Amino acid sequence: MPKSEFWKNIKNNHKENEPFFSLAPMEAVTDTVFRRVVDKATAPDLFYTEFVNSTSIIHEKAKFSAAHRLYVDKDEKTPIVQMWGKDPEHFRKSALELKKQGFQAIDLNMGCPDPTVVKNGGGSGLIKEFDNAAAIIQATKEAGLPVSVKTRLGFNTIDDYKEWVPHLLKQDIEVLTIHLRSRKEMSKVDAHYEVIDEIIKMRDEIAPNTLIQVNGDIKSREQGMELYRQHPGIDGIMIGRGVFENPFVFDENQDHSQEEMFDLFKMQLDLYDDYIENIGKKRFETLRRFFKIYVRNLPNAAQYRDQLMQTHTTQEARDIIKQVERDMAEMKDQEEAV
Fold it and tell me: Which residues are catalytic?
């Protein structure tokens, strides 16, 4: 079992013979608003923040931006903070600050493929910097919080994992989450599930107390469960983009109505307005990326999505949804009249 109480609780507080499930940290997606929407739909076992630059947490001029990324509402579960960067000392100081703020665990981003992040020595760029990756892990640990790592199989080739994964496991981390592609592959190829058993074997031999969580192309809880049945050494399943196809992705029951979908949409609009009024600014453009979630299964979905993408206020979005609901009611009446 892992050494920290935090991860012991995650591991133990779910159904026997099942993995734990998590919502992947996603830039401009997994903020306090959307985490609460997913929690309302069906909560996973744990959430992560958007990734936060380790330097911004301690930099006077960047603290404001970091504070927004780290905002946690009193009614939501405390998420794991995901940090990225390249300076071990910044990670150490930021981890200490996060501990003061009440966060319970830290995840280190060593897998982001974004060119800007990589150019600045962070994310998947650390796959080529074994020594610095190790230094970052050890520096972060000095705060006394449990530390995990999210990464990819490799930088240019998936075969990098044969050296990269053992290197990370030797750092005595609580959890190793692996997006089952290389940085070069981005998300353009299928996830490499074929290497899972070899990774589990590495874990069992090098660091049996480290939990293994996998990520990539998992679009439903049932798909995650099937992957677990095929590879029972997996401890956790992380779902990312699948939530854009179905906000109820973590639910065992997938029979949800369009009315339930619209209720979530309205909740997200309300939470967004509340954030703007009481916490601070958010660009409306960041909200638009979610609109396709709620109309994707409708007749005329493309038309409704285009209309929503032209909005500039939450009230405009509400008005369109009201019109969609009227259209749906009219179509139902016509079908019943036939």
Answer: 112
